[in-house]
Amino acid sequence: MNLAKTLLGTLFLGVAVIAVGARPVAPGDLLLLAISGLLGIAAGDTFYFMSLMGLGPERAALMGMLTPIGVAVASAAFLGERPSAAAWAGILLTVAGVALVLSKRSFATTRKIQTRGVACALLSGLCMTAGMVFAKRGVPHVPAVQAALIRLACGGAGLALWGLLTGKSRLGLAPLARPSLFAQVAVTVFVTTFGGFWLSLAALQRLDASLVGALCATTPLFVLPMVAWSSNEKISLRMGLGAAVAVGGVALMLVGAHG
Question: For residues 32 and 138, is the Cβ–Cβ distance under 8 A?
């Protein structure tokens, strides 16, 4: 799944870069973005998919709330970022609010937590944190769409090499031979590529990595209401309260960023 996602995303972004025109990229920036792609996409996303298999989507997403905290700490340590007190409070509130939204679903399930799933979730968070730090260093002088292409292409190259060495590439891509599944994956990848990868790098060019990490963690606030609507499930008080706390955290982050 991760390999298919990166290959299709690279194709989409390649067309976009050809359309808008590519600019020369300094070797140092190219190296930083390449490392970011290998760590954040090839390793981080793969470990996340593995954690889904062991923990289920709710628990895996809940453990993913550790990632923005890791990004904030790593940004302060390695990027010299010094978020204001309001920004730090906003980061913590946002993470707590999203965790509260997810916790109802997480605690309601009887799925057994597996040690391997927890380990994969932690490794995913570590790799994604490192990938974000490297991306922040490499993206300031590179157009966001071009930087996203470099990250995805390098992540895809790493996954393809691993697939060749392990002999699993053909097995993993075989299900995509079904036209209906391929169409669903292609539409999903198109949306996430331009609505996620590209915009997240555009945000990194304008905001501290700690703020971007926390804002990216608000994804469940958009996903869970859509799931509740499609399955005719009522929004619980816990979910509503968690969403309100997270939105308040985002507001604090914005105040802190401009304060």
Answer: yes
Give the separation between CA 225 and CA 233, rounded to whole angstroms: 9
Please tell me the total number of residues recorded for the chain in this structure: 259
- Nearest CA among 108, 127, 139 for reference residue 31: 139
Task: Please report the pLDDT score of residue 235 as a whole number.
Answer: 67
Q: Token digits for 100? A: 């509260």
Reported as a single tens digit per residue, the pLDDT across 190-242 is 988 888 888 999 999 998 898 888 888 787 777 767 766 776 767 677 777 88
Specify the residue for token string 């390999």.
3
Which residue is it, tokens 């005719």?
Answer: 232
8 Å CB contact between 235 and 228:
yes
Tokens of 150: 């470099």
pTM, entire model: 0.81
Tokens of 167: 């002999």
CA angle 138, 70, 130 (to 5 degrees): 35
Contact status, residue 34 vs residue 137, Cβ threshold 8 Å: no
Place of tokens 């993206």: 139
Q: How far apart are CA 16 and CA 199, in angstroms?
A: 14
Measured CA to CA, the distance from residue 249 to residue 259 in angstroms comes to 15
Q: In the predicted model, what is the mean pLDDT of the chain?
A: 83
